[in-house]
Amino acid sequence: MKVSNLQYARTLVELSEGKDEKQLKEIIANFVVMLDRNGDIGRVEAIMSEFEKNWNGQMGLISAKVVSASKLEPETLETLKRYIIEESGVTDVQITEQLDERVLSGFILNFGDQVIDASTLSQINKFKQELTK
What we know:
5 helices; 133 residues
């Protein structure tokens, strides 16, 4: 039976709960050996991504990424943070900013399974699609 990335991640979260640093190092080392033995070591990135989501969920945390053409004002970031907390029901948000001039203006917000594209680039592309109909 094939073990999914999510199953691996949940198992690692359960094994990690309440452990000290020394115990965690041993658990992770054993986990990596098991992945290698099962032929799943190539999936470690995807598994760790699932692990982070599960761990953060248990801790009331969520990671978010906002892409914009220029650095956003602290007030804007705080507004986005409050929005994410309301939408996802978590207690804290870690927002990573990424600059991409192709966005032109506005932003693209990713958190959980949601993507909110409030960029000018997106609006231009929608407008182009409407014109070609």
